């Protein structure tokens, strides 16, 4: 079997992967690369999720790439518009020719004797396995399983006579006209779905165990739209992006330093949105502090309008069992339903579920320390993209891709072919901390044991702070004394493989 060789393999052709390809072409124009995508199309999240009303809960001036202005009027964009933006980016930069669809990466094996990864990918539709070798891997596979979302075990589920649907597997032609619907969950997906369903359904109930903080905002940014009329596109985009980043950071810092004041302000805003007879304390006042979980954005108050019009309602209770006709609650109340939607979250998947092997030893990522939240102690030439939980994903994805390119260029300039984060003697007793702290959302807590650790000092921190990350990632020197640069001690790739087809530019 002939094994192809590329300088770089990017795993995933979603928002992060397409952006990474742009940065690689821009900053490392001499490098050959391929994008391996397990699905049949690009777009990742924005191609997978097809439920009614699918949209971002981050504004597109920060969720958009730093190099491609968002020019649509809506700042809070729907899924199809975001997918169009990703595809435009790929087309404008001729990235599509480098994507191989239907290539699900299963294993990546590093050899220090030739400074190369061998990647095994399962080809969709058959049992064939493709092998590709490269010097460096940039993981852009997202953070959750594409196979299906998280659905708890519900007692009596088999008794229910209607349809049970998870938003991640939304049926293309689901008829919910004049149907009684129960949506289990109170996160961003539920808050997005309910106003859309309520337009056609007989009634929609949001069934939640506990409330979520919600805040309404216009889906258009009038300042951005005004600036585009009077300034060049790139200038207007840069100003709006800066403005929105500053606002995001200000709000988040405020929730950390004065949580009670932020809580009071959020609840005051809610009281203005909802009719006076609604129980704000019971249905909209969480037990946790603001931004201990993500705030739910409600564009143009659409969710609140559905509640006020009585097309939708909220029930705060626990499920006892599914019944033939719906759901029996712990309180004894029964909710009738034709359709039950389990908007109960995602199943996180570390590094796309890929088995990582370094010099014959399988790496348990949960036993590693995370270097700048991008690399893993003891794992060479692999950078992983993971965005922010308190800001837009792409802010960090752009930083990560830029860093990856700087790292490659540094190795070329210094004549090294491998680079490994190493814990030093001073880190021997460094405390192990969860990779994400002060964030209680279930999808993250369920997977925390699978994620790498962070320490209590740079560069072993996952700061979740864009301003600080810009200094740590973009501003500091690549050779920081923690990254160990080296070359193979014996042999070479050509000598040891013999049958390698090179795609190096």
Give a brief description.
By secondary structure, this protein is of the alpha/beta class. It contains 14 helices and 24 strands. It folds into two domains: 3-146 and 347-502, 3-Layer(bba) Sandwich (FAD/NAD(P)-binding domain), CATH 3.50.50; 157-342, FAD/NAD(P)-binding domain.
Describe this entry's structure for a reader.
The protein is 29% helix and 22% strand. Strands 1, 2, 3, 4, 5, 6, 17, 18, 21 and 24 form a 10-stranded mixed beta sheet that branches. It is α/β, with parallel strands linked by helices. It has helices at 15-27, 45-48, 60-63, 79-92, 188-198, 222-230, 233-257, 259-273, 280-284, 302-308, 393-414, 442-445, 466-475, 493-497; strands spanning 3-11, 33-37, 99-101, 103-111, 116-123, 129-139, 163-165, 180-184, 203-208, 214-217, 296-299, 312-316, 319-322, 326-329, 334-336, 339-342, 355-358, 361-362, 370-371, 375-376, 382-384, 418-421, 483-486, 500-502. The longest helix is centred in the middle third of the chain and has 25 residues, at 233-257.
Instruction: Give the overall silhouette.
Output: globular
CATH superfamily (homologous) name of the largest domain: FAD/NAD(P)-binding domain
| Poorly predicted sequence stretches spanning 5 or more consecutive residues | 491-500
Averaged pLDDT, please? 93
Q: Could you please say which CATH topology of the largest domain applies here?
A: FAD/NAD(P)-binding domain
Number of helices, counting only DSSP H or I runs of 4 residues or more: 14
CATH class of the largest domain: Alpha Beta
Broad structural category:
alpha/beta
Q: Which architecture name of the largest domain does CATH use?
A: 3-Layer(bba) Sandwich
Main sheet summary: 10 strands, mixed
Task: Report, as a whole number of angstroms, the end-to-end distance.
Answer: 22 Å
Q: Return Rg in Å.
A: 24 Å
Number of domains: 2
Total strands: the figure is 24
